[in-house]
């Protein structure tokens, strides 16, 4: 697959598209925001005038958008991508969205004989830049195998969780756990600080002890503990609190429909919602650390 359209060039999509260019692919790009397009064009991408312009005569379409309504709007209906692309074009959506939307888009694609894969990612902006993302796919075995050609360039792991929508279910399970770990890590670090500990020393201890987890290893929420994290850069970039609230909402809807008990996810959702409402929606989700910090 040589000719690829990439739609949605934000914190994640931008570096993912850049890795396709580095691998020698011809990439046509589109975003609603010109500032998101410019660095890709400077790196060799072709700017498309619209999403439909981007997908004309490509082998594969990759999208990386905020939520389900954006993905349905992009792919479905008379003016959607599915109605316009050649039947051999492979469609891959890497956004984190509700499983029902992913299944609806996949069904519309299938009715036209087009392969669609839901392929949400884990690994954050650092993983997007380094090309080490984990892709969590839903779709037929054949479609996911086809997608590997492109996904292997942007990631280190490609999993097939099951049929259409299964990638999204696995992704929200992961993000619910991530939110709980981030809140718990923030709370523990602040407890240590309040009791006179150096957060760097405490982080080093917990990282290799029984409390060790991904947030301590890769994404410490306390400013100054790790150089490359959003916490050490004013909580800019990274994964917005608003997007984490969205994912926790998806997890809670899934829990309701399956009648699963998810009290930790519900509490994390409530905390993140309050954090967003306090004006932190655009800040990285590790800024929940500030919720616990002393103001006196
Ligand atoms: P972002 O807000 O930085 O980027 C989204 C981009 O999509 C923006 O540039 C926006 O202009 C563009 N866009 C929206 N609607 C569009 C449309 N109709 N056509 C073209 N462009 C459109 O968000 P992000 O952090 O890149 O996240 C994207 C997705 O990836 C979300 O679903 C998020 O939950 C998921 N995700 C993010 C991270 C992370 O660390 N940021 C990690 C894993 C998964």
* Molecules bound to protein: nicotinamide-adenine-dinucleotide
Whole-number total of structural domains: 2
Topology, number of strands: 9
Strand percentage: 5-15%
Total helical segments = 14
Q: What is the 3D form?
A: globular
Indicate the radius of gyration in whole angstroms: 20 Å
Overall average residue pLDDT? 97
CATH topology of the largest domain: Rossmann fold
State the order of secondary-structure elements, H for helix, E for strand: EHEHEHEHHEHEEHEHEHHHHHH
Strand order, largest beta sheet: 3-2-1-4-5-6
Structure description:
This protein is of the alpha/beta class. It has two domains: 3-162, Rossmann fold (3-Layer(aba) Sandwich); 169-292, N-(1-d-carboxylethyl)-l-norvaline Dehydrogenase, domain 2. Helix content is 52%, strand content 13%. It contains 14 helices and nine strands. The chain has helices spanning 13-22, 34-42, 51-55, 68-75, 81-84, 99-111, 124-130, 141-154, 166-194, 199-207, 214-218, 241-258, 263-280, 289-292; strands at 3-7, 26-30, 46-47, 60-63, 90-93, 116-118, 121-122, 133-138, 155-162. The strands form two sheets. A six-stranded parallel sheet has the order 3-2-1-4-5-6. Strands 7-8-9 form a three-stranded mixed sheet. Helix 4 (68-75) packs parallel to helix 6, helix 9 crosses helix 12 (241-258) and helix 9 crosses helix 13 (263-280). The longest helix has 29 residues, at 166-194. The radius of gyration is 20 Å and the shape is globular. The model has no long low-confidence stretch (mean pLDDT 97). The structure holds nicotinamide-adenine-dinucleotide (NAD). Residues 7-13, 30-33, 36, 51, 64-66, 70, 74, 95-96, 121, 124-125, 238-239, 243, 247 line the site of nicotinamide-adenine-dinucleotide.
